[in-house]
Amino acid sequence: MSEEILINVSPTETRVALVENGMLQEVSLERHSYVGYLGNIYKGSVSRVLPGMQAAFIDIGLERTAFLHASDIYRVEKEQNPEDIPPEPPITSLVREGDEVVVQVIKDPLGAKGARLTTNLSIPSRFLVLLPESETIAVSVRIEEETERERLKALLATLREHKGEHGYIVRTNAENINDFALSADMSYLEKIWECIVEQTRISKPGECIYEDLSLPLRALRDHMHEEVEKVRIDSRDEYDRLKDFTSKFLPEWTQRIEFYTAARPIFDLYGIEDEIDNALHRTTPLKSGGHLVIDQTEAMTTIDVNTGAYVGHRTLEETIYKTNLEAALSIARQLRLRNLGGIIIIDFIDMHNEEHKRQVMLALERALERDHAKTNICEISSLGLVEMTRKRTTESLGHVLCEPCPVCSGRGVLKSVETVCLEVFREIMRSSRQFEASRLLVVASSPVVDKILDDQSTIVAELEEVIGKTIRFQREDQYTQEQFDVVLL
């Protein structure tokens, strides 16, 4: 598996693409007109406490107050036995209105919702995550080899004795690293924490205490590993910043960073612009001829698998199995590419063979192993549905790049011409009864007027006879298909 990281920088936005074997897997973007807050630490003030919701609203200086739940105020240690965990205390015993609290954003504002906060601060670096004032020493679950997990835990415990009393989580990138690299990372995090403590002391409520790294630096910190062959960036200034960053924290990767100077736009490599555009469509084709239909709603995302034009070569069951297997791999990629999160329902084509069901689920789980977001998958239900969740921390690609259609208001459908025609007739009857006028003028879109004059002229004549008034029609090209006005003359 070979990987590349491509970074495109323009005066208005920065975009990062993660490419595996020549295929786009993830894309992140940061528009300079919109700043993300994920990972930032603020000194906030409690503006309102809601005992019924076990939550409080915190003013951290953003447009909307942020949300802090009681479960995000006290920390449960990783090694703590579930039976020993005390019950969640009332929110009123934890915070009061007017209190000052140091909080961290764990979810960006999404739609009409404010940011989600926690008082359990965490500061990530290349190999570690610092947990201030915690007893935790833990290793990422993605490091599966038990001997390596035990080595890292022992190494971390030894280093922790000489470098403060904070808790730490070893990240996946730390697999097989030596004690020198881990120690350097720990020293870096300790310095960051000292700066945060000092900034907390001098800051006022509503001010940012700590801001996470820029998108290109976060991409290196979070995605750089042995399989990444090169990082290409098309901005000289950002290239210099990446070089400085890697020379301090990732010296072994410095030679893999390249300044892209070709005339061809960097995102034209591997067809990334086309892939981003395709990720905004409902339908995603499969190589076999089948396709996925992906619908994102406020509550959940649904994915429907269809055989489409694929008819297979053997039996119907074999055709369905092959389509579902291919769909499982495509779904895992689309979840990452579109950055879909929350509840996800997958409607695979019904399979009767239990082994086929097991293989499809196994393929989905394996494909999701490379996903950086946490996922949880349930077994195929009796209805043939797979329920899963994917951790959502930022807006999906569709929500970032698109806005609701002004014509259909985000419904995705329009009333048919015939439906609008019938609404026009009902409005004519209503207006003629309520107001006195000798003539009526109907202003509507061209398709509606044409339909009425060509196919429903008989109905218009009957209406004129019933209401005793003349009806005239006028086309208005600026009107949408659903818009119309009935004017009294």
Could you name the ranges where pLDDT drops below 50 across 5 or more consecutive residues?
none
Q: Share of helix among residues?
A: 25-40%
Biggest sheet, spatial arrangement of strands? 16-17-18-19-21-20
Q: Quick check: average pLDDT?
A: 88
Number of helices: 11
| Number of β-strand runs | 24
Walk me through the structure:
By secondary structure, this protein is α+β, with helices and mostly antiparallel strands. Helix content is 31%, strand content 27%. It contains eleven helices and 24 strands. It has helices at 146-162, 179-202, 215-223, 236-249, 272-278, 316-338, 354-368, 397-401, 417-434, 446-455, 457-467; strands at 3-9, 13-20, 23-31, 41-50, 55-59, 66-69, 100-107, 116-118, 123-124, 128-131, 137-139, 167-170, 207-210, 228-233, 257-259, 283-285, 291-296, 300-306, 342-347, 375-380, 385-390, 439-444, 470-475, 484-488. The strands form five sheets. Strands 16-17-18-19-21-20 form a six-stranded mixed beta sheet, with helices on one face. The chain has a five-stranded mixed beta sheet with strand order 3-2-1-14-15, sandwiched between helices. Helix 1 (146-162) crosses helix 2, helix 6 (316-338) runs parallel beside helix 7 and helix 9 (417-434) packs across helix 10. It is globular and about 95 Å long. The termini are far apart.
Ordered list of secondary-structure elements with their pairings:
Blueprint: E1 3-9, E2 13-20, E3 23-31, E4 41-50, E5 55-59, E6 66-69, E7 100-107, E8 116-118, E9 123-124, E10 128-131, E11 137-139, H1 146-162, E12 167-170, H2 179-202, E13 207-210, H3 215-223, E14 228-233, H4 236-249, E15 257-259, H5 272-278, E16 283-285, E17 291-296, E18 300-306, H6 316-338, E19 342-347, H7 354-368, E20 375-380, E21 385-390, H8 397-401, H9 417-434, E22 439-444, H10 446-455, H11 457-467, E23 470-475, E24 484-488
